[in-house]
Amino acid sequence: RCEKAQAEAAESWYLALLGFAEHFRTSSPPKIRLCVHCLQAVFPFKPPQRIEARTHLQLGSVLYHHTKNSEQARSHLEKAVSADPAAREEARALSGNSVDAAKPLLRKAIQISQQTPYWHCRLLFQLAQLHTLEKDLVSACDLLGVGAEYARVRGSQHLRLPPQLLLMERKLQEVHPLLTLCGQIVENWQGNPIQKESLRVFFLVLQVTHYLDAGQVKSVKPCLKQLQQCIQTISTLHDDEILPSNPADLFHWLPKEHMCVLVYLVTVMHSMQAGYLEKAQKYTDKALMQLEKLKMLDCSPILSSFQVILLEHIIMCRLVTGHKATALQEISQVCQLCQQSPRLFSNHAAQLHTLLGLYCVSVNCMDNAEAQFTTALRLTNHQELWAFIVTNLASVYIREGNRHQELYSLLERINPDHSFPVSSHCLRAAAFYVRGLFSFFQGRYNEAKRFLRETLKMSNAEDLNRLTACSLVLLGHIFYVLGNHRESNNMVVPAMQLASKIPDMSVQLWSSALLRDLNKACGNAMDAHEAAQMHQNFSQQLLQDHIEACSLPEHNLITWTDGPPPVQFQAQNGPNTSLASLL
């Protein structure tokens, strides 16, 4: 009882100092000197090794992010690594986010952690991740192999499975049979419940993200449901229920709390691709709330990565639902997160410029949209992102109507009929839609119908609701132009219903305008009036949001195309873009 009381007392003074330090760090403006004093006050108490190492990490992080004293920051990191291999997560951040500077620190930690299997394998994974960032997959796979062999020597099948699964997942040309094999390996493994569920989450995350990368939104549903059920199960288990006899089996590939955020994240990714945007908002809110709680006591870089990816997806949802001002403020939030971490900016710069390009399209700033997409193309070597950017840039050229040479060049590079550059079902369907849009603007209606029917076939096969709605309304427009009012109505009515369900404000605006004109042409005065009122309501909502977005100081971000994100923004005098094409 005496020992317990002493432990509780030690924890209380530590938490008090940590709370004061966090209060000063998050003050406006931050009081960094006082924050550092609070953290330094921990050491005279002769704290346990774990707390000492964590405090060195926190000091290093504060000094790196808020001062120019990089040498002192590095010194604290090295002390933390020497005291506790758990310091591997902050090695990159305190090394100026330089992979070259981080790798020696990780190798040193790997060398001194050979008798602590848990940290030895986590450090091997971390170094493998750095090699992956550098596109050195050979070295990454070698390290994963070392991890698997180390686990074999330690007699830990549980520790051996994660690197084996990653090595299998790398062989993309054989991915489907390998995923089946991986699933069998996990299900056949015998161990305590929390270890088995942890491995199942690991495998299912690999499986779900593979399907999402392939744009197979419908096919992924059974795997995603299993993953969600698995995380519910693991959240009810306690880590100390069954302690393994082998120390190597203490390893978990990710803390349980981080797994929960990761499952929220892949659920948001799925909802965004499928067009369930209200569901995406719901899970984003849950994930961000969880992240805020975790980041109060955990400065792991992976949490910031999760936060940025969540924001990237919800920003795209906001642009679709007609909340451009909110989307712009969230883009600014991503910029602020990237300012704090050069590595984070390096990994997400192309995505950030892509989001700005999509925002520019939504407010009809086509020259800025072109500049943002062009910048994003220059910054990425990721094939799926490249195809996504090119598809959107092609739509910008189509709307401008005077960039024929550039447009033909882009369309040839994303030709869905021949050698499409990526295997994504969703992106290939989108490429057919862009072809149909171009043919429509060229007045080649039969050709446009062929492309759009191909889009519909592909989008219906995988429940790509936004592409379905866009294709239906464009087909409806074509039939209206051709004078086939009945067929036009058969396309526009389901387009409006689906767009309302998503909800997609632009498709609702377009559909309501077509319904108004269709009903006028057919002599249905009451229905025409109702559609006209809907169109007016949508127009007013979009106009109000447009004016609000363009009036924000963050709107000046649309001119940023080089270097790190701007630190601050100057206020706009008012909106400077035309709404003619929008309304």
TrEMBL record:
Q: Which domain of life is it from?
A: Eukaryota
GO BP terms: namely: cell division; chromosome segregation; mitotic sister chromatid cohesion
Subcellular location per UniProt equals: Nucleus, Nucleoplasm
Cellular-component GO terms for this entry: nucleoplasm
Please give the Pfam families that the UniProt record associates with this protein. Cohesin_load (PF10345)
Record keywords: Cell cycle, Cell division, Chromosome partition, Mitosis, Nucleus
Q: Does the keyword Nucleus apply?
A: yes
Instruction: Name the family the entry cites.
Output: Belongs to the SCC4/mau-2 family.
State what protein this is by name: MAU2 chromatid cohesion factor homolog
What species is this protein from?
Canis lupus dingo (dingo)
